[in-house]
Amino acid sequence: MDKQINPTTKPAYFRTCEKFSFMKKLIFLLVFAIFGGSQLALAQGFSSSGGSSVGFRFGNEQGISYKQHIGGGAAIEGILSARNWSTNVTVLYHLFHKPTGWTPGMDWFVGAGGHAWFYNRGNRDFPGYTGGLGIGVDGVVGLQYNFADIPFNASLDWKPAFNIIGGSYFQGGGFGLSIRFRFK
Fold it and tell me: Is 135 inside any structural domain?
């Protein structure tokens, strides 16, 4: 007779691997949706006057940033980042990019969006939270400089977040520097 293992008595290693496998699939699907959705929006006739850019984000969270301008000064930004044994997927809608008037190529922007955190261990920032999923809302305000002679841009922003599901808390220290390669 085959002996079946009760899922609650599986060794911790196997339970962790199962959670990690699910998280990898979910992150892949979310990243695919962000990038595919922005390209679909362009295919359906949205303006891409600002083009798209992809690069790295540095700060409290390190990760990858993808921004797609969709016309009318608006943009969609997707961020895949890591911090404290967790992975974060954030999607932001930049309401506008307006010239600062300080120097050509420098814009300021404001936007809002949401995030999903996937914790696979305890979070040292929030003791007692041992893992799972956190969902919340984000805001963003910052400056972006588009270099004239090279296909890069750099942005400095503040991205506060309020987590709603998986523990309610405000995280106000989301400062970041993004450096991206611009596509035309």
Answer: yes
- Dihedral Cα 108, 156, 162, 15, nearest 10 deg: 140
Q: Which residue range forms the structural domain that includes residue 79?
A: 10-183
pTM beyond cutoff 0.85: no
C-beta neighbour count of 79 within 10 angstroms? 24
pLDDT digits (tens, 9 = 90+) for 68-92: 988 888 999 999 998 777 788 999 9
Q: What is the 3-state secondary structure (H, E, C) of the chain?
A: CCCCCCHHHCCHHHHHHHHHHHHHHHHHHHHHHHHHHHHHHHHCCCCCCCCEEEEEEEECCEEEEEEEEEECCEEEEEEEEEECCEEEEEEEEEEEEEECCCCCCEEEEEEEEEEEEEECCCCCCCCCCCCEEEEEEEEEEEEEEECCCCCEEEEEEECCEEEEECCCEEECCCEEEEEEEEEC
Tell whether the torsion through CA atoms of 139, 84, 175 and 147 is positive or negative.
negative
The answer as to whether 1 is a domain residue is no
Number of domains in the chain: 1
